[in-house]
Amino acid sequence: MGLIIYLDGKFVPEEEAVVSVFDHGLLYGDGVFEGIRAYHNRVFKLHDHLVRLYESARTIGLEISIGMEEMQEVVLETLRRNNLRDAYIRLVVTRGKGDLGLDPRKCPKPTVFCIAASIQLYPDELYERGLEMVTVATRRNIPEACNPRVKSLNYLNNIYAKIEANLAGVPEAIMLNQEGYVAEATGDNIFLVKNDKLITPPIHVGLLEGITRNTVMDLARAKGIEVVEKVFTRHDVYIADECFLTGTAAELIPCVKVDGRTIGDGKPGEVFRGLLKDFRELTKIDGPVIFE
Ligand code: PMP
């Protein structure tokens, strides 16, 4: 059975959910989006995702035609129409239809759509075994040009890095910033554990302020783990006790090899396992309910 999609005020079958070839989201990557998860009949951290969406829109000078409360209802209603209690949700706002020039003033109305689909989780095996990464040559966008904090539709920077990872035959890549400090993976934030401390790069390094990242830092502090946001290099990754990635789709995923170096004892660590357990508990109670 096909999905029901929210598109510009209507719920339509997926065959009818089409946007114009003149949409600047398509022509120029001009727009913003969120990837969100629903678990156990609740939309996890929905408020945080909506805040980030509207903040990204503000920076690119895009006025979203509907308010945040209405947008929350769009997400919940999309899930209801598809009878989904556990799902991956893609919420997108583009600059809308314009002419072939890039001037956003020629785009009178943003395009808004929301897709909710059953999720294909990563295989359990990957969480138990851990994944391998390489550092790639493509540097993360500099904040002064295309700020990684803005979750825009322009993902070419990350896609270049993903292609490098693909060519190296590994599932993920570490991206450095211009100075050579570790920034993040192609679609996930990065954490290290060293001497029982949890370490992650600060926002100013140039990375997306991940909602899972913030959640994991809160969970760690709640269990008495010291959390440090500081810049670090590949050397710090190689000598870490543990390394893992965080993101809405991946949740927390362990990384056991980087650039051919085994991290820690080459197995997902204890801190990682504890935090993943706490994270999964939190998904049972956080966020607005879908079906009352
Ligand atoms: N960094 C990048 C580049 C991403 O695309 C994502 C996924 N949205 C993340 C980090 C993780 O963010 P979140 O935890 O909010 O999904």
From TrEMBL:
Which catalysed reactions does the entry list for this protein? L-isoleucine + 2-oxoglutarate = (S)-3-methyl-2-oxopentanoate + L-glutamate; L-valine + 2-oxoglutarate = 3-methyl-2-oxobutanoate + L-glutamate; L-leucine + 2-oxoglutarate = 4-methyl-2-oxopentanoate + L-glutamate
Which GO terms label this protein's molecular function in UniProt?
Answer: L-isoleucine-2-oxoglutarate transaminase activity; L-leucine-2-oxoglutarate transaminase activity; L-valine-2-oxoglutarate transaminase activity
Question: What are its GO biological-process terms?
Answer: isoleucine biosynthetic process; L-leucine biosynthetic process; L-valine biosynthetic process
The cofactor(s) it depends on are: pyridoxal 5'-phosphate
Tagged with keyword Amino-acid biosynthesis: yes
Q: Key word Transferase present in the record?
A: yes
Taxonomically, the superkingdom here is Bacteria
One cellular component GO annotation, for this chain's record?
Answer: cytosol
Please name the pathway: Amino-acid biosynthesis; L-leucine biosynthesis; L-leucine from 3-methyl-2-oxobutanoate: step 4/4; Amino-acid biosynthesis; L-valine biosynthesis; L-valine from pyruvate: step 4/4; Amino-acid biosynthesis; L-isoleucine biosynthesis; L-isoleucine from 2-oxobutanoate: step 4/4
Q: Which UniProt keywords apply?
A: Amino-acid biosynthesis, Aminotransferase, Branched-chain amino acid biosynthesis, Pyridoxal phosphate, Transferase
EC class (word) = transferase
Q: Which Gene3D superfamilies match?
A: 3.30.470.10, D-amino Acid Aminotransferase, subunit A, domain 2 (3.20.10.10)
Q: What is its EC number?
A: 2.6.1.42
Alphabetical list of InterPro entries matching this protein: Aminotrans_IV, Aminotrans_IV_CS, Aminotransferase-like, B_amino_transI, BCAT-like_C, BCAT-like_N, Class-IV_PLP-Dep_Aminotrnsfr
Function per UniProt: Acts on leucine, isoleucine and valine.
Q: Which family does it belong to?
A: Belongs to the class-IV pyridoxal-phosphate-dependent aminotransferase family.
Q: What name does UniProt use for this protein?
A: Branched-chain-amino-acid aminotransferase
Q: Which organism is it from?
A: Desulfoscipio geothermicus DSM 3669
Give the gene name.
ilvE
